[in-house]
Amino acid sequence: MKCLVIINPVSGRKKGLKIFDRLKGLLKEVGWQAEVNVSMRRGFIMDKARAAELLDFEGVIIVGGDGSLNEFVNGMLSRSDGFRIPIGLIPAGTGNSLLHDLEQLDPAKAIKSILKKKIRNIDLMKVECRDELFYAFNVVGWGLPSTINQISERWKFLGGQRYNVASLQEIIRNPSWPFSLKFGTTELSGDTSFFLACNTIHTGNGMKIAPRARLDDGLLDIVLLKGASRMQLIGLFSKIFNGTHLESSLVEYHQVQKLAVEDDNESTLIIDGQILGNTPFSIEIVKQELQILN
């Protein structure tokens, strides 16, 4: 099998090159031919996904995090020829949310699973923001999830704990945003501090934010938090890691196929850990659109 390997050397704690160096012998053992590329700039991974040369490969292995995979997916889905290719992910990021769900957080375990060449089709979220279009496999966040991620990007030296530290900082500040959310025949409005549309169970540093989510069920899992005090937020924060935050009356949880959010302030979104897009926005599930080697 001929595969394209893309390494993001700055994902997580910048261990991508070392991780692949330890594992590359396994590819040779099973006769896989690998063309290795190291991403040295923003947009490199997306360019590789759009390149004509992608047609020469049977699979792609990305050594990086959720953001690296998101970049490749969006590049691939913007191809004019509609070409799709199975993708394997080796964890080298900070959150690795998708691999949390797949129980593949160990790089050696992840590559051994990839080498079995079994393909799993998972859903994607199609996100439209005015004149911009994005695809997501993990999460679309607004409000606290977005501001927490923006702060955590400045504290990468803290590793996975940067999400927790940034969360506590924003909990103390306790901002809120006016919103209008529509799905099906339901319309919700008011002020919210926390909105997430999830395709995976996990986000951030192992937070079990959407415990009912499934990668291939054709549903978006909405997690919405309204009108919480600082002390209530602190109490909920510890419960996010085991999913018991859903027991709180402050948390609304819905499973839908599409939704729309109105907001006049053009607040920033977080899409698969990347700062992308603004409100207002809409999301629609695209069932089993992405092929994962797992």
Describe the overall structure.
- Helices cover 27% and strands 35% of the residues.
- The protein is an alpha+beta fold and 294 residues long.
- The chain folds into two domains: 2-117, Probable inorganic polyphosphate/atp-NAD kinase, domain 1 (Rossmann fold), CATH 3.40.50.10330; 129-287, Tumour Suppressor Smad4 (Sandwich).
- It has a six-stranded antiparallel sheet, covered by helices on one side.
- The radius of gyration is 19 Å and the shape is globular.
- The mean pLDDT is 92.
Descriptors:
2 domains; alpha+beta; globular; Rossmann fold; six-stranded antiparallel β-sheet; about 290 residues; Tumour Suppressor Smad4; about 25% helix
Summarize the SSE layout with pairings.
Blueprint: E1 2-7, H1 16-29, E2 33-38, H2 44-50, E3 59-64, H3 66-77, E4 87-91, H4 97-101, H5 107-114, E5 119-129, E6 132-136, E7 139-143, H6 144-152, H7 161-173, E8 177-183, E9 186-192, E10 194-198, E11 220-225, H8 230-239, E12 251-256, E13 258-262, E14 268-271, E15 274-278, E16 281-293
Parallel strand pairs: 1-2, 1-3, 3-4
Antiparallel strand pairs: 5-6, 5-16, 7-10, 7-14, 8-9, 8-13, 10-11, 11-12, 13-16, 14-15
